[in-house]
Amino acid sequence: MKSNRSTQEPRWVRYSLMAVGLGFLFFFLGLPLVAVFVEALAQGVPAYVEALSEPETRSAIVLTIGIALAVLPFNIVFGVAAAWAIAKFDFKGKSLLITLIDLPFAVSPVVAGLIFILLFGAQGTFGPWLADHELKIVFAVPGMILATMFITFPFIARELIPLMQSQGKEEEEAAVSLGASGWQMFWRVTLPNIKWGLLYGVILSNARAMGEFGAVSVVSGHIRGETNTLPLHVEILYNEYNAIGAFAAASILALLALVTLVAKTIVEWRMKKETEMLNTVLAPEKTQ
Amino acid sequence: MVSKSQRVLPGFGLALGYTLVYLSLLILLPLGGMILRTAELGFGQVMDIALSERSLAAFRVTFGASLLAAMINAFFGLIVAWVLVRYPFPGKRFVDALVDLPFALPTAVAGITLATLYAGNGWLGRYIEPLGFKVAYTPWGIVVALTFITLPFVVRTLQPVIEDIEIEVEEAAASLGASRWLTFRRIIFPAISPALLTGFALAFARAVGEYGSVIFIAGNLPLISEITPLLIISKLEQYDVLGATSLAVVMLALSFVLLLCVNVLQWWTANRHKNTEPLEVAAGRAGGAQ
């Protein structure tokens, strides 16, 4: 009891720190979150439902989900491949490779969109060739997928690299020495071990893919009903002073954010539980 | 493959090859292509564009607001992280999960919501504006948006470090007669300051590139409240591709310097942690814990 007291702040300090910290979170996180839904429902539920059933809002929802689904397999395959090479093998230039994977985090989303305009736009490197073959990449869906791929590139790899490094390679080596083929080892040993980390990365990269604004805005061309994702649609409605429509669309994205936070928390809890279980199993051996 | 007998596990060539090809095609070649594009202009002309009055004002607003937002988050983030790790209170897990909201909430949603809250008739604006302080559609609006967007960085980098502080060290300090404030200043703060700096740098780096949340609340007046990413887009919309590219390359160079700083800081944190470990253990022993 006594030692506990000596490492604790006086009561008034504790209460003031809690008031300042939680007050800050209330004004900067709680209030905006509540405001999205209050503004969306400001003119009642029927107006809200009507705003959401507009065909342009619906096609924006479909496109947003479509782009996120198109990007996901690329990110998963890249994340697993990069983590496998980096975590299980030693090679020269490994830390450089890890830094390069983080590169998109240091690039402004606007710049991420711009680089694809420079490659595939009318004055771009491949612009004339694409025009000759009547192919469209920027100001069309393929460009939006590319820009989203760029922005969400590091998410899954970043989750999997430290996880696979901490797991070591003994289990896989045992599987191979017992005669498992490469794919058998991957499906039966590696994948079950990394499934929660992979899911965590998928959740993060999906949230970013569905919510991305800057990069997609640059390459979209803003064609209503065709190249308008939900975040871009929010901007158009807001600039037309259609507050109900804008906040109704925004509330869908805010719900998505809440689902993301819940899913993330559950996965974090599962991962923690699994490592704790592993530690209690291994602990007696370690102390001997 | 046969010669490398120490490699028991399969798939190294395939995994690394795929990683390098994908990385090059999606990230490195497009970025390199952009940098090469500025070669058409030459260094002098790129600098002329970057140092024009409007660009300089945009850089000043972008970096100034980002610095302020990162500083606000460093101060409040430290308090929030401390409260979340050390003090029990009801609903703590909910609050802890909520800290990640800015990462999960699309930036456009944050932008329109903050603009509505701080506008003259908004929930917060109606109390702030009579005091003679305008937030929405001024550079202060940019600071508010960037503070929201980068809020999780400092909290999330500090939390594990505060959790790792061994309570025995604090007990030892207390038993040697140090006040709680002295213990914080001399023991706790030095232990967490590298992580605090890392969180600050991450927040700053993210804020500099931010676009979606800012444009709704900034007012976007050239020379006053126009950020660099917006200036890039408006140049692009006027078909001034080379102007946009020049600004983008200068921004990219500045971002790389920041990324380098973050990496050095993280390396420093890791090293420092290693170096201080024996001392902490010793202090822990002195405190009679082991």
Task: Please provide a brief summary of the model.
The complex is a heterodimer of chains A (288) and B (290). Chain A has 288 residues and is mainly alpha-helical.
The total count of strands of chain B amounts to: 0
Biggest sheet overview of chain B? none
Mean pLDDT of chain A: 91
Total helical elements of chain B = 14
CATH class division of chain A: Mainly Alpha
Helix/strand class of chain A: mainly alpha
Order of helices and strands of chain A: HHHHHHHHHHHHHH
Characterize the structure shown.
The complex is a heterodimer of chains A (288) and B (290). Chain A has 14 helices and no strands. The longest helix of chain A is centred in the last third of the chain and has 45 residues, at 243-287. Chain A has 288 residues and is mostly helical. Chain A has one domain: Orthogonal Bundle (MetI-like fold), CATH 1.10.3720.10. The relative contact order of chain A is 0.13. Chain B is globular and about 70 Å long. The model of chain B is unreliable at 1-5 and 277-290 (pLDDT under 50). In chain B, helix 3 crosses helix 8. The termini of chain B are far apart. Helices cover 76% and strands 0% of the residues of chain B. The longest helix of chain B is centred in the C-terminal third of the chain and has 46 residues, at 241-286. Chain B has a single domain (43-289), classed as Orthogonal Bundle (MetI-like fold), CATH 1.10.3720.10. Chain B has 290 residues and is an all-alpha fold. The chains are: A mainly alpha (288), B mainly alpha (290). At the A-B interface, helix 2, helix 4, helix 5, helix 6 and helix 8 of A face helix 1, helix 3, helix 4, helix 5 and helix 6 of B.
